[in-house]
Amino acid sequence: MSVKRPSKADFLIAAEDHSYHLSDSQMECFLNLADETLGSYDAIDKLYAQTIAQQPPEREFSKAPDADNLHGAWYVKTHITGAAQGPLAGKTVVIKDNVSVAGVPMANGSLSLDGYVPSEDATVVKRLLAAGATVVGKSVCEDLCFSGASFTAASGPVKNPWDLSRNAGGSSSGSAVLVALEEVDMAIGGDQGGSIRMPSAWSGIVGHKPTYGLVPYTGAFPIERTIDHVGPMANSVRDVAVMLDVIAGADGLDSRQKNPPAVACVATLDQGVAGLRIGVLREGFAIPSVSEDQVDAQVKAAVAQLQSLGATVGEASAPWHSGVALDMWNVIATDGAAYQMLQGNGYGMNVDGYYDPDIMSYFGAKRREHADALSSSVRAVALTGHYSLKNLHGAYYAKARMLVPELTRQYDEAFKDFDVLVMPTMPFVATPLTAADAPIEEYVHSALNMLTNTAPFDLTGHPATSIPTGLADGLPVAMMIVAPRFQDALALRVAQAYEQARGPFPKPPRR
């Protein structure tokens, strides 16, 4: 199909945006040149259709009845069986609904993608199926995944498994809840500011954000290329480790990956913590106007248990962790998401690797059609990011990215004295759900006020595991274990030692 040619009105809009002043004759010349250039677009469209495009496979799926979806965590159910044998044989997996499962609808928590059906499985889905897993559905995630709470999805709030009136954490909200309720064995989540670890913490399960670039993001809907992560969630450290061994490794398609080393997390999982040095990150505790004493106390008690197992414990410091790091993340996530996810229709441009032109086209049209239905957190980013890019010209994004190496250096300096760093995953327990019609300031603040300890490690790329430590006021508290880059196995090894010392974690009440 031929690409529609621009009109004079189209080029007047473009000229105004670029501050060009064109005479009628100049305008005619540029329109003629555009017609010639767009002929190449027509040729590429035809060639792509002949050589790459494919139709979605026939896979059955269904919406979960309300009676079976009390917590609002299921987007659709399906049943896709994997290989007959493998490390995940017999395991059921739910996929966060920003990750493509071919032939199964994908909404990314938003009306702006609702109805889209991918034609190809994401790399992590292919690897899970090859390892024997059964994919049983898609889990609800937050609107375009831009929320650390669980009330922004177009389908409605995802409710905490411990208290239906509270947040489950986001944006991998449905994944965490379905694992916590044991409706599935394990889940895939995504993490740009803490979105694997935060719902894991508030729902009482184990979640691991891998080292940046360890697990291919191919086939997952991006937010910002420099902070996009995808990773495993489950009820036990062992299941998370097995899952990470399956999904890790380069796929040759994801530009985020720079020859990541092989990992073998299960192989070292039971080596214990005797002789390891654990750094209690000073700036991750007692954060003014953020931290709750009961949460800090529980995590320090968990550290004491690790010490009793033979670990050496001391205080570590990264001065930029609790203040500057979040400012850096705010700039990068705001400008970056506005530029790539919104103006760039998910994928942006200017890097090699995998693109999904179908989803870019679908989302580009639908996000304008349903613009007013986007969550206030997404619209806040869109408006502020547009202003920044147009008036500040991306310079502040550049400044923030140039500061990331110093933040990284501070953590790496701490790793010279300690093998891992620990702190609360979430500085406070799960908050009450915010109403959809709440004042905009309240809505946005309550969607993003819990990122203090998690977001910095999306910037630096260090691996981080969240593991529940106990309950406070009947709600889960979690410890986060951070390791040097590509030492994911070490973070999980420490988590495994703690899990065994802690004993079985209680289950949410049955309803």
UniProtKB/TrEMBL annotation:
Pfam families in the record: Amidase
The protein's name: Amidase
Stored SUPFAM superfamilies: Amidase signature (AS) enzymes
Coiled-coil features, chain-numbered ranges: none
Domain Amidase: 66-490
Domain of life: Bacteria
Gene3D superfamilies: Amidase signature (AS) domain (3.90.1300.10), Glu-tRNAGln amidotransferase C subunit, N-terminal domain (1.10.20.60)
InterPro entries tied to this protein: Amidase, Amidase_CS, Amidase_dom, AS_sf
PROSITE patterns: AMIDASES (PS00571)
A GO molecular-function annotation: catalytic activity
